[in-house]
Amino acid sequence: MPSTPSCVLTSEQEEGPYYVDYDKVRRDITEGKRGVPLRLKIALVHAKKCTPLTKVAVDIWHCDAVGIYSGFTKQSMDMHRPGGFGGPGGREGRPPGPPPDGFGPPPGGGRPGGHGASDDTRFLRGIQPTDANGIAEFSTIYPGWYEGRAIHIHLKVHAGGHVAHTGQLFFPEDVTEKIANLQPYVKHKDVHRTTQAEDGIFEDQHGASGLVTLSRIEPKSDAGGFVALVTLAVDPDAAPESIRMGPRRFTAI
User: Range of 52's domain?
Assistant: First the structure.
């Protein structure tokens, strides 16, 4: 954890439609999914006391290397078909329905009793408690992309029985550009990779506050994976209102 963490309250970002209330405490969330290894370390500090925030739960979820979210695999694949969110034929890249990270239910709805999900897959989702240093660590993969959103990881911080923070983590564009040329990501290059400058959520909801710092696991090897570190300042006593999607900018391709 950085020796001089910032204690300025970290900005919230919208939850998006692909959250699943899935109480699975586990560090390794890959479930065999292929991709560049990522050791994600999320350090939390108390925004008022500037001390490590211990014994709170960090809940993360993200898409796989080709833009698919577990729990919503059919809807995610539909986004990449012609006329869908990631395919040609959409108006200025806009899908016929709500964008995949819009506020509200995902296209196609959910399964009753399934916590909003429409299938039983749960890859790249999990919960970890913060340790004595305020750090929650996950073993995952570098996320892929789908058109309309910059590469990101969703997260929630649960403290005292409520959600104290909802946000998103983002990745350096120069590293992402290199990752996009590796397997299995390169198979997805027919889908436009939205940059942070093109992403309304990153631009309008202070996404820079969630940028991770990356270091290689193997020297000089991007394929060997990365350690990702980010420090977030959270008020564990707060219960912020959900950020709702405002007017979304789309980039014609």
Answer: 37-234
